[in-house]
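Just scan this pair:

***
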Amino acid sequence: DNLLRRAACQEAQAFGNQLIPSSMPLKKATVFLNPAACKGKARNLFEKNAAPILHLSGLDVTVVKTDYEGQAKKLLELMENTDLIIIAGGDGTVQEVITGLLRRADEAVFSKIPIGFIPLGKTCTLSHTLYPESTNQVQHITNATLAILKGETVPLDVLQIKGEKEQPVFAVTGLRWGSYRDAGVKVSKYWYLGPLKTKAAHFFSTFKEWPQKHQAALMYLGPTERPPEEPEEKPSRPPLYVRLYRRLRLYWSSPPKEISQEVTPEDWEELKLSTIELSIATRNRQLDLTRTEDFMDICIEADTVSKGQFVNRGSQKMRDPHMCPEGSQCIQASRCILQLPEGTEGSFGIDNEEHEAMPVEVKLLPRKLRFFCDPRMREQMLHAAVQ
């Protein structure tokens, strides 16, 4: 572990030793660290493995430690200008930071700030997309921190989930509602059963009622066409006389246009559903940088599942929560409205965080945020797209 740390620090020092012009200010990085992540070990993991790399790289680092759930959202409202945002924690910390960021009044400007993710939590779904798999925790954290210095980014989709009363919540992975999620939450209660705890949680949940059905109404719009990528740098503006000449030429040559334009009505599809689990997920897990359409995946699983299948599938779902089993109905949509019957109890899992189940509108914000990723992963994505 110490050899890995030393190698990473030497690599970071190469960035720190680069000369910068005297007129150029240091790059500011704001780190949101959740010390409670990874059963309270996150602070120690960050200070040992990530902090030395960030300081050696010549960044002006400010570390903000969160004391309670929801604090990151409030801190982001007060955040001043920064060049980088770094999230050090798990899925819950990511969700809090991006929700706070996208709720700001000036979110259009702040959402362009690149985001780094240092995986320190129990569940770090995004790390599968951004960094190579590694069985060594120290290597995984140092790889993620060095990826921030290398500066390669990928655009990720975001889901905007809006209830009737509250402000919207934003998610980079997705929303789950159903029996597998409910059973998965209870797994830690059966810790004393060791490796059998996952199967036990799903087995005992079949005693509640069977078959377990979740009824709802779903309205959705199909995929939208992806606009071409905007250039990073805007071309320089032509001189005034050129702009005046162009405008006059355009004015004299074009016939007068009708002002009224027909607005095409949106084609909402309606669906009544009865399912054991419903999930709405972004495409961030299977990121395709050359895709021509933007959509989220809605998976409606059949409610005709035997108890044995439920227990086996529950174990698979713990490894890959948004897997869509055979026999499920899969829908691609850019926007959807989920209506629940009155008196529906239970919870949604939004990026592995618990939220009260209620009627919601889920809207896809394509390529909304840019996350730093390992250059090798970006290379792999582009190579897979070419093939």
User: Anything to note?
Assistant: Confidence is low (pLDDT under 50) at residues 257-264. Residues 2-16 form the longest helix (15 residues).
